[in-house]
Design a protein that fits this description.
This protein has 12 helices and 12 strands. The longest helix has 19 residues, at about 260-280. By secondary structure, it is of the alpha/beta class. A hairpin with a 2-residue loop joins β11 and β12 (about 290). The chain folds into 2 domains: about 10-255, Alpha-Beta Barrel (TIM Barrel); about 260-305, no CATH class. The strands form 3 sheets. An 8-stranded parallel β-barrel has the order 1-2-3-4-5-6-9-10, surrounded by 6 helices. It has a two-stranded antiparallel ribbon with strand order 7-8. Strands 11-12 form a two-stranded antiparallel ribbon. The protein is about 40% helix and about 15% strand. α11 (about 260-280) packs antiparallel against α12 (about 295-305).
Length: about 300
């Protein structure tokens, strides 16, 4: 059985910026996506496609997951992009932006399969859910085709899609708060704009055996925001998070790696349940808490994030 991809940190880089792409290949990120879409000006689209093709063959990507974000389904260049890149062995997946329609996913899957050429298997697809319609259809999109292996949440475009008044990618609007009663002095509680879309995407991903990747924290110079948004995604059960600057790689990765305390507890819990099994029991108490097989499944998933780093 093939081990699942380790994609705790997913570094985005414009495909036409050669130096940035080279740095991304050498970075500590688990995964990289070269962007042909929003990060590339219209006049640079053709050059970006050729740059991505050259980078896939020229750079040493190590064990990274390497993907390319296509232009939109209604773009005149998307089929050419798939045909140009789909046969290159080092390409692991295409990221499909603004995924909304099962018919579109099926069409793109067909193009990817046709472009595979002599590859042992076609590149896979990772769907970027970044519109209201995409989120409404996320369950059917997750099950749309066997080539679909991951769902990404596009936090910036999603916020724009629903009309949210947020000027910062990945952050809730400052006015999105619950105000309590006058009798209590009108206490306010900040609310999370992304709690619902994150959970819905995550449930769809888990229901169909896909990875779930959170969108980026746009405030890349803010280490507190970077670490906090990564910790939220990791705590929810996401497999990773997009990052838009190399400085975000380490704090984001660290949020997904179990701490020394978690590792120690995991070892105690597994040992205790193994001992319970030998005594004919299916549950045991560890540190004052009940541990059963569900806990062990959660622990083993947590351990899978250790990787090499």
């Amino acid at each position: 059985m093939t081990a699942p991809r380790l994609t705790r940190t997913y570094l985005a880089v414009p495909a036409h910026r050669a130096r940035l792409v080279q740095n991304a290949a050498a970075s500590a990120a688990d995964a990289v996506f070269m962007d042909l879409e929003d990060a590339v000006p219209p006049a640079e689209k053709a050059a970006a496609l050729e740059a991505a093709a050259n980078a896939l063959t020229a750079h040493d990507w190590g064990r990274k997951t390497v993907t390319v974000r296509l232009n939109a389904i209604d773009s005149p260049s998307i089929q050419e992009e798939i045909a140009r890149l789909g046969g290159l062995e080092r390409l692991d997946a295409f990221i499909v932006p603004k995924a909304e329609s099962v018919a579109d996913v099926a069409k793109i899957a067909r193009w990817i399969t046709e472009a595979a050429g002599t590859r042992a298997a076609p590149a896979t697809m990772e769907l970027l859910i970044e519109t209201a319609r995409g989120l409404v259809n996320v369950e059917t999109l997750a099950a749309a085709d066997p080539l679909v292996t991951a769902l990404h949440l596009g936090v910036g475009d999603f916020a724009a899609s629903i009309g949210a008044r947020s000027a910062e990618i990945g952050a809730s609007p400052s006015g999105y708060r619950h105000v309590g009663s006058a009798a209590d002095g009108h206490p306010t509680v900040p609310l999370d704009l992304f709690a619902y879309p994150m959970m819905r995407l995550l449930v769809a991903a888990r229901a169909f055996g896909l990875r779930a990747i959170d969108g980026p924290c746009g405030a890349f110079r803010d280490p507190v925001a970077t670490a906090a948004t990564a910790a939220k995604a990791a705590a929810m059960g996401y497999d990773g998070k997009q990052v838009i600057h190399p400085s975000q790689i380490e704090p984001t990765r660290d949020a997904f790696i179990p701490s020394e305390e978690e590792l120690a507890y995991a070892q105690r819990a597994i040992a205790a349940l193994e001992e319970a099994e030998r005594n004919g029991q299916g549950a045991v108490t560890v540190d004052g808490k009940m541990v059963d097989y569900a806990n062990i499944r959660m622990i083993r998933r947590l351990m899978s994030f250790r990787g090499q780093g």
